[in-house]
Amino acid sequence: MTLADRIDALLPQTQCTQCGFDGCRPYAEAIARGDADINRCPPGDQAGVARLARLLGRDEPPLDASRGTPRAWHAARIDPAVCIGCTRCITACPVDAIIGAPRRMHTVIEALCSGCDLCLPACPVDCITMVAQPRDWSTRDADAARQRHQDRARRLARLQREDEVRLAAKAQAKLDAMAAEPADAHTDRQRAVVQAAIARARERLASRTGS
């Protein structure tokens, strides 16, 4: 287990980005590199700072109040009478706690919601409120949220790869069709544009697959 793994295991996995990083794992990696202090996580509260200080053998700094105010676990709740089914909250949710479909009312699975608040600014009709939960956010909740966040990242990466493959195939079909056209300056320019698009798509795919 790396140092970043051990740090990440102590973070609450709300994925709220209040620390200034795009989720708990990037924050853990920044701490491990020495690029971020250990007191930037409001959901972890001062107790979380203390755990990180013990792990790293450091003095315990006070929680950075500029990052936000600690609070008990809250979960999002959507007003069905106001929701317009825009799916923006679904896109914003880092732990896949919201279900719904375009132009259909959305619902939050409150037991899965990490209380990150990221759906609030995404909603164009202000139909989401944060509701206090009857218990504390637990280590088990954090572990499950980490797994959902990782699953979501893999799913989005897969969908992006599939989209790039589809677009590259469409561009190749266009290039193949142009091969039958008479050669002239206009057609040559079009071929060059399509070839460049295909090359860029292949480079992106190669960078994502590590090939």
Detailed description of the structure:
It is a single chain. With 211 residues, the chain is mainly alpha-helical. It folds into three domains: 3-67, 3-methyladenine DNA Glycosylase II, Chain A, domain 3; 74-132, Alpha-Beta Plaits; 157-209. The chain has helices at 3-8, 24-33, 45-56, 88-92, 119-122, 139-178, 185-209; strands at 74-78, 98-99, 107-108, 128-132. The strands form two sheets. It has a two-stranded antiparallel ribbon. Strands 2-3 form a two-stranded antiparallel sheet. The protein is extended, with a radius of gyration of 23 Å. The model has no long low-confidence stretch (mean pLDDT 90).
Please sum up the structure shown.
It is built from seven helices and four strands, in the order H-H-H-E-H-E-E-H-E-H-H.
User: How many domains, in number, for the residues?
Assistant: 3
Q: Strands across the major sheet, in which order?
A: 1-4
CATH architecture grouping of the largest domain: Orthogonal Bundle
Give the terminus-to-terminus CA distance: 26 Å
CATH class of the largest domain: Mainly Alpha
Structural class: mainly alpha
| Strand and helix order | HHHEHEEHEHH
CATH homologous superfamily grouping of the largest domain? Electron transport complex subunit B, putative Fe-S cluster
* Fraction in beta strands: 5-15%
> pLDDT under 50 segments (min length 5)?
none
Q: Give the overall form.
A: extended
CATH topology of the largest domain: 3-methyladenine DNA Glycosylase II, Chain A, domain 3
Query: What does the largest sheet look like?
Result: 2 strands, antiparallel
Helix content: 40-55%
